[in-house]
Write a structure and sequence with these properties.
The chain has helices spanning about 35-45, 55-85; strands at about 10-15, 20-25, 30-35, 100-105, 110-115, 120-130, 135-140, 145-150, 155-160, 170, 180-185, 190-195, 200-205, 215-220, 225-230, 235-240, 245-250, 270. The model is unreliable at about 50-60 and about 85-100 (pLDDT under 50). The longest helix has about 30 residues, at about 55-85. The two termini are about 35 Å apart. The chain is built from 2 helices and 18 strands. The strands form 4 sheets. The protein has a 5-stranded antiparallel β-sheet. A 5-stranded antiparallel β-sheet has the order 10-11-12-13-18, with no helix packed on it.
Length: about 280
């Protein structure tokens, strides 16, 4: 999808529509009809001889992505320190507010573009509808989770995340029902639980591997407590209760030479003081 520029980092379906949203390292979000995506995919398929990707190249891509995140994290730390020095060390590091929405024509399709170049790359996004809003939620390298109402065409709110947590790399809201919870994962292994009703950070945890959170997904079984699938570390995904940090179930691949594993061999969530973030 060359129309957006940069590298596409995440995709999500815009609920109750025929549209998808894409995030880019160029600092933009595009929302477009699936018909446009099919047209672009058809052109890419015609231009390529093979659609297969080797396992070796996937490993190279992951290593390159980790290196890119390290560089982006270093830039964010430098910018955050400059901000704190300029403002006497007070306040949140970078509260991006410059998101601008516009519509543009690409061929026969209309694309809605949100330009957040001043906020850095957009790493993750998700969508949820309410009775009055169509809320697109996305995270930028500035350390802000933005809530953008697609119906009103404006930024509804922003949730800042401190420099200590690293870059925001994953987002999730409940797949159905009221979006009470928002879960975010970071490049340093932090898992953050927000209450969207009051737009506050309720709980913070750190994955015991201290590695990047690749994906988070809130289970459909979530009722009073948010049960979250977390993919992080190496060859492991687990279901946790994000309210108390307890592990419900672990899915782990091990070499055939390993006869058994113990509780100490699986990752955990370590509690973090939210005041430190």
């Amino acid at each position: 999808y060359a129309s957006q520029g940069g590298k596409i980092t995440d995709l999500c379906i815009v609920d109750n529509t025929h549209a998808i949203a894409s995030a880019s390292t160029a600092g933009s979000v595009h929302v477009f009809k699936i018909e446009h995506a099919l047209e672009v995919a058809r052109q890419a398929s015609d231009a390529s001889d093979s659609g297969f990707v080797s396992a070796e190249s996937l490993g190279d891509d992951l290593g390159a992505e980790d290196a890119t995140l390290d560089r982006s994290e270093a830039r964010r730390l430098a910018l955050g320190e400059q901000h704190q020095q300029a403002h006497g060390g007070g306040g949140s590091a970078l509260l991006g507010t410059g998101a601008g929405g516009q519509r543009m024509n690409l061929g026969a399709s209309t694309v809605q573009e949100l330009n957040l170049a001043d906020d850095g790359a957009v790493r993750a996004l998700c969508h949820f509808p309410t009775l009055t809003e169509s809320m697109l939620t996305f995270a930028t390298d500035s350390g802000v989770i933005h809530g953008w109402d697609l119906r009103a065409g404006r930024r509804a709110w922003g949730l800042p995340v401190g420099l200590q947590a690293g870059l925001l790399t994953a987002l999730a809201v409940p797949p159905e029902g009221d979006a009470v919870w928002l879960v975010a994962g970071t490049s340093r292994g932090f898992v953050l639980l927000f209450d969207l009703r009051f737009q506050v950070l309720l709980r913070a945890w750190r994955h015991s591997s201290h590695s990047r959170i690749h994906r988070v997904y809130i289970s459909r079984a979530t009722c009073s407590d948010p049960f979250v699938y977390i993919a992080a570390g190496t060859n492991e995904a687990a279901l946790f209760n994000a309210a108390d940090g307890s592990r419900v179930q672990t899915f782990k691949t091990v070499p055939h030479t390993v006869e058994s594993i113990t509780v100490d061999d699986v990752e955990k969530l370590e509690p973090v003081d939210i005041a430190a973030l």
